[in-house]
Amino acid sequence: MGKYRPKEIGAWIKTGRAVELTIKSAAAFGEQWWQWYLELQPAGRAQEDGSLQRVVLDKAEWSELYKGMINGMYSLLASLAWWLKAANPACTPKVEVSKVLDDVNWVLEAMTHAHSSKRASPKAEEPASKKARIA
Question: Which pLDDT does position 60 carry in this prediction?
Answer without folding.
Answer: 65
